[in-house]
Specification:
heterotrimer; A alpha/beta; B alpha/beta; C alpha/beta; B: alpha/beta; Rossmann fold; C: alpha/beta; Urease, subunit C, domain 1; 2 domains; seven-stranded mixed sheet; globular
């Protein structure tokens, strides 16, 4: 199976904003934030159709999200996961003594994971806290 | 029949729009319609009315299920937790009013807690930079009335602050800016061609993580000195061009966001951005402003500063206020396992902290005060739902430019629900008794 | 409420003309009374000095720029944090103490009424939240008007009545106390990176001069009959040679008469005079012009001043004079903060170190002392440090020491690195006047109270006045062995009473009292044009709505005390 390496950034999107106000227990939150936006060229390299579940893994963790074609591109080499528990499972938590985790600029590996599920937000956090794979 | 409440403040982002109109039923119980708000603000008002809303405190049982308890029991539980803890962390504060923050600070002082707000994962590095080098800034009305040069650096208001551009920055017609956006030049710096960047006269698609280099190159370009052919992925011609645009304006402003505060370089990126602004004041008038996220994160910083002397990451465990981001900041405290209880209010660290910190929270005695169900409430031992501040309770809030605006109560909270402040008063009074303080 | 009688103390009260005689001061129901009941608690003030609670006429102690100072100067907290103690909340900060510490420190020094000197109107809610959190002392705040678009537009056409109506609206909306003017016109010019350095420099676009703004605001102030006069920080602050601009500004008050029911005689209050009394053409030939300025003020009875004493500390400068702070950061290269406020004003903040090893700082120190020593009428010259600009207010006792003791002044002069320069560029060495305790009471109590229009309420110990009393462990009958004893005595009161409540005992806080917010409610004739103008500016140019502008409600002003003015 093909894998690609991209530079991960997280941040706001308007769908994320609406979803957090609409209820983080709802599926809409997953739709808005349980995704990774990839450049079409990167999707092609990955050998995945858009809207395929992928596993994104960094040195700090791993999470399953849905790969979609970027809405604000092109940005080859950059992956974007809207801020939320999915992104925070894998971003670089080091603050380097500034108090601020490194939410932007984490090298990650993306691989297709069609048979794995993207969890709901609260569910994801609870499961991960119990040490289960998410 | 409906009544219209005017001049309503939107309790979502730091733009703190105060021109909303809300149609409510005559008995003041139900919101029917929200006018003037962005899609997020509208959702905030309407979702507060959801029928499946949790309205009573819930205590997590050993098997992971929840048991409903009274506010009295919840206050007692919280006070006990705070009294027992040696170094509790009281985190959040950015989605509640300044009165609740003040009350929380009394609790923090009694419990000798660490107090931190969401700047910890947002503009905390900005505050460090401001402490290094200062901050030439202005109110948003100055931008509307005077600005002819606008820079968005590492921020995406089209998504994060949807009405910012129409109310203050790009489009409005002000006193000296009668032609609106036609008289303004817009420069956007972002590693992605964001929806904000698509409106720009110049978009500099900086290499992610190289903002410092590009900012530094701007300082060079402003002085007309030599640059290498490409800096941070941007050809030098484009840098000179952008620098000339900024210099030639009458009044300019740099708005910046998480793109610079959270990328490597952190506070040094902001240092350099502020230095660019200072340099530009040798040629024209220039300001710089952080795009604050939560609608009252600014207020939390203000209240913390006038009461304790520091805007965030305050540690009271020694009986007086100490401040040392990287040491007394939430992420570091949790990562190191330094705190023995977690009190969350008006924020969702469960969703927005790195996972290693979330796991630590799940292992601690913990209370989450939040109107919503959130990942934080999902990993906390006690969840205390409260009235929505800005919808069901009023109170003072601070916009991203530090302008205070008093939130309005639009409708009544569900029967028997308390506000943040009311619940905190109950906790404080109990804690005072436990500590034997008059 | 408790009754008290203070016995055996040496009373200094300019309001009643008592100059150190042993007199009884009786307190009942929050007021000074002729005689207390038999059950009154007796305070024995034998060998002590008894004065009214002191009145602070000009300090930056609450609001956005003060808090910006706190936020951006963590270093100001070093070694200054105080733990929770009894009823005292935690405190922090030296030049910009936290609100709680501010209240405690003032009360411990015997201050009971303080004025926040510059409130940006748009931020009035912030100012009031901080005032609310500053315990014990009564406070008022001065909204700034000198660069306000309404004021400039009205006064361009000399529309005094409209200006007055606007001021009345603004005082009500912001719960403000007086008309403050900072660098008139210059701060608006600063919005374009420019400045007005003389009273005749035109303000960009608005086509009005600082002189017209100042004159018009004095007229509007007297039209309304406000308790305090127009309170001004003139153009060209802090530059060598600036005294000429100061004299030009003072001359604008010529021929103007006070109109009010509060006993105030002045029409202009010149603040932090020290910063405005500089001669010379550069920092090399920098010299004192305290004599020129005080000569003028001595001759013109419709002007009051405060000093702005440099205390030789590391401090934080902050002012609505935006262009000045930009200039200052260029001089000392320390971090610069600036906030421009739409339609109204601006503010700047820069840390500053007044080093005794720098000749300019030492000369500034001397000028600050020359001014009160050269002023003939202590009722028109008040002691301030323009806190925190020339030094923190907690240094007042040290300033008192320098004023009351030539020995203390000589010691300091001898300690300067550039002693000779201080002596040639100022006349501090030849001034042998020592301020008496009675004069001190005039300069810190009766005088500022009168200028603020509060002369019937505070600043004195006459029956009927508020029972604000400060008792110092200082025996005026004994010669001062060591000038430092003066400083020590005035740093911590033996007792402080605020509105009849004992708030300080032996230098410790024993009650947080019943703090009030003072503001002025001016009634005027209906003025539809001004109402329309205000509506229009909010619709078109402000970034917030008019309905959200007012400081309204218990969380902003929990205990208001409105001074009523009728100008209908």
């Amino acid at each position: 199976m093909a894998t690609i390496n991209v530079n991960l950034i997280s941040g706001r999107s308007i769908q994320q904003g609406v979803a957090i106000e609409g209820g983080k227990e709802k599926p809409l939150y997953r739709t808005a934030c349980g995704i990774i936006e990839l450049d079409p060229s990167d999707l092609k390299e990955l050998g995945a159709w858009k809207n395929t579940n992928v596993r994104v893994t960094s040195e700090f963790g791993s999470v399953v999200v849905k790969a979609i074609e970027t809405t604000q591109g092109p940005h080859p080499g950059i992956g974007f996961i809207p801020m939320g528990p999915w992104a925070n499972k894998i971003i670089n938590p080091n603050t380097y003594s500034t108090g601020m985790p490194t939410f932007k600029g984490t090298p990650v590996r993306v691989e297709v994971a069609v048979d794995q599920q993207v969890l709901l937000g609260i569910e994801l956090v609870q499961k991960a806290c119990r040490g289960e794979t998410v | 029949m409906t009544k219209i409440v005017t001049d309503v403040i939107c309790p979502f982002c730091g733009t703190l729009c105060d021109d909303l109109e809300v149609a409510a039923t005559d008995d003041g119980k139900k919101i029917i319609e929200v006018y003037n708000a962005c899609v997020i603000g509208t959702e905030k008002f309407l979702h507060s009315q959801a029928s499946d809303r949790v309205t009573r405190p819930r205590l997590m049982q050993a098997d992971g299920s929840y048991k409903e308890i009274s506010y009295d029991e919840a206050a007692e539980y919280t006070a006990q937790m705070m009294a027992k803890a040696k170094k509790p962390l009281m985190y959040g504060w950015s989605s509640t009013n300044c009165e609740a923050q003040s009350m929380g600070h009394e609790i923090a002082e009694l419990a000798k807690a660490c107090v931190d707000n969401t700047a910890a994962v947002c503009h905390g590095t900005t505050l460090i930079a401001v402490q290094d080098i200062g901050l030439p800034t202005c109110t948003l009305g100055e931008v509307k009335n005077r600005a002819d040069r606008i820079v968005f650096w590492g921020c995406n208001p089209a998504h994060a602050h949807p009405r910012h551009m129409s109310r203050y920055s790009i489009f409005p017609r002000g006193f000296f800016t009668g032609k609106g956006h036609k008289n303004r030049k817009l420069v956007v710096v972002d590693p992605r061609p964001t929806d904000t960047a698509k409106m720009a006269d110049i978009h500099l698609q900086v290499t992610q993580g190289q903002d410092y280099e590009l900012l530094n190159a701007f300082r060079v370009a402003l002085k007309g000195e030599w640059l290498p052919d490409v800096v941070a992925g941007i050809p030098k011609e484009k840098i000179y061009e952008a620098a000339d645009i900024l210099k030639s304006g009458r009044f300019g402003i740099i708005f910046f966001g998480m793109g610079v505060t959270q990328s490597l370089g952190k506070n040094h990126n902001i240092d350099e951005a502020i230095a660019v602004t200072k340099d530009l004041n040798d040629y024209t008038k220039f300001s710089i402003m952080p795009m604050r996220g939560h609608y009252n994160v600014t207020g939390s910083g203000e209240v913390m500063a006038w009461q304790f002397g520091y805007p965030y990451s305050v540690d009271l465990t020694r009986g007086f206020a100490r401040y040392n981001p990287g040491d007394t900041s939430s992420i570091d405290l949790l990562s190191r396992g330094d705190v023995d209880a977690m009190f969350t209010i008006g924020s969702d660290p469960g969703a927005h902290f790195p996972f290693n910190c979330v796991k630590k929270i799940s292992e601690l005695p913990s209370v989450c005060i939040d109107p919503h169900l959130t990942p934080t409430s999902g990993v906390s031992k006690l969840h205390v739902p409260v009235a929505f501040n800005g919808v069901e309770a009023g109170g003072s809030c601070y916009r991203m430019d530090n302008v205070p605006i008093d939130c309005r109560k639009v409708v009544e909270p569900p029967e028997g629900m308390l506000t943040d402040e009311q619940f905190l008063i109950m906790v404080r009074d109990r804690l005072k008794k436990m500590k034997g303080v008059a | 409420m408790s009754e008290y009688v203070i016995k055996n103390g040496h009373v200094f009260d300019p309001v009643q003309g008592i100059k150190g005689d042993k007199a009884e001061v009786a307190i009942k129901d929050g007021k000074i009374v002729e005689k207390a009941g038999s059950g009154a608690k007796v305070i024995d003030a034998k060998g002590m000095t008894v004065m009214a609670g002191a009145v602070e006429i000009h300090a930056h102690i609450a609001g956005p720029k003060v808090n910006l100072g706190r936020i951006y100067r963590p270093e100001d907290k070093l070694f200054t944090c105080t733990p929770t103690k009894g009823m005292e909340r935690m405190g922090s900060g030296n030049s910009i103490p936290s609100t709680f510490k501010t209240g405690y420190e003032y009360a411990k020094m015997g201050y009971t009424t303080c004025m926040e000197a510059a409130m940006p109107p748009m931020f009035s809610r912030h100012v009031h939240e901080e005032i609310r959190d500053t315990p014990i002392i009564d406070e008022g705040a001065f909204p700034v008007f000198g660069n306000n678009w309404f004021v400039m537009e009205y006064l361009k056409n000399h529309e005094v009545e409209n200006t007055a109506a606007y001021i009345a609206w603004m005082l009500r909306a912001t719960k403000g106390y007086a008309v403050k003017v900072v660098n008139p016109g210059g701060t608006e010019a600063w919005a374009w990176g420019l400045n007005c350095l003389t009273v005749n420099d035109p303000v960009p676009y608005f086509d009005i001069t600082p002189a017209e703004i100042v004159k018009g605001l004095i007229e509007a102030n007297e039209y309304l009959g406000l308790p305090h006069s127009m309170h001004i920080h003139p153009n060209n602050l802090g530059n060598p040679g600036c005294y000429e601009t100061t004299l030009d500004t003072l001359k604008l008050a010529e021929g103007m008469k006070a109109n009010n029911k509060f006993g105030r005689e002045s029409v202009m209050h010149l603040t932090h005079t020290q910063f405005h009394s500089y001669g010379g053409t550069n920092w090399g030939d920098f010299e004192s012009k305290a004599k020129e300025v005080t000569d003028y003020v001595n001759k013109n009875r419709n002007i009051t001043i405060d000093t702005g004493n440099v205390t030789l500390d590391e401090t934080t400068t902050m002012t609505a004079d935006g262009p000045f702070e930009h200039h200052l950061t260029g001089l000392n290269h320390l971090k610069w903060a600036n906030v421009d406020v739409e339609l109204e004003t601006a503010a700047g903040v820069v840390p500053y170190i007044y080093s005794p090893n720098i000749s300019v700082c030492a000369i500034q120190w001397a000028i600050g002392l020359e001014i009160p020593l050269m002023m003939k009428d202590p009722m028109r010259c008040y002691i301030t440090t323009d806190h925190p600009n020339a030094g923190p207010f907690t240094r007042y006792p040290r300033v008192f020491k320098w004023l009351m003791s030539t020995k203390a002044r000589e010691e300091q002069i001898n300690a300067f690195k550039h002693k000779d320069k201080v002596l040639t560029q100022t006349s501090i060495g030849s001034l042998d006047r020592e301020i008496s305790l009675y004069e001190l009471a005039q300069m810190t109590r009766a005088g500022p109270a009168k200028s603020l229009g509060l002369g019937n309420m505070c600043g004195g110990l006459k029956p009927g006045m508020d029972a604000d009393v400060a008792i110092y462990n200082f025996n005026p009958e004994k010669p001062v062995a060591n000038p430092d004893d003066i400083e020590k005595a005035f740093t911590r009161c033996a007792f402080t009473f605020k509105s009849g409540v004992e708030v300080v005992r032996n230098g410790e806080i024993v009650s947080t009292g019943h703090k009030r917010t003072l503001w002025v409610n001016a009634k005027i004739k209906d003025n539809p044009q001004v109402v329309r103008d205000i509506n229009e500016k909010f619709l078109k140019y402000y970034s917030m709505t008019q309905a959200n502008y007012e400081s309204l409600g218990h969380h902003f002003v929990p205990n208001p005390f409105a001074i009523e003015v009728d100008a209908t």
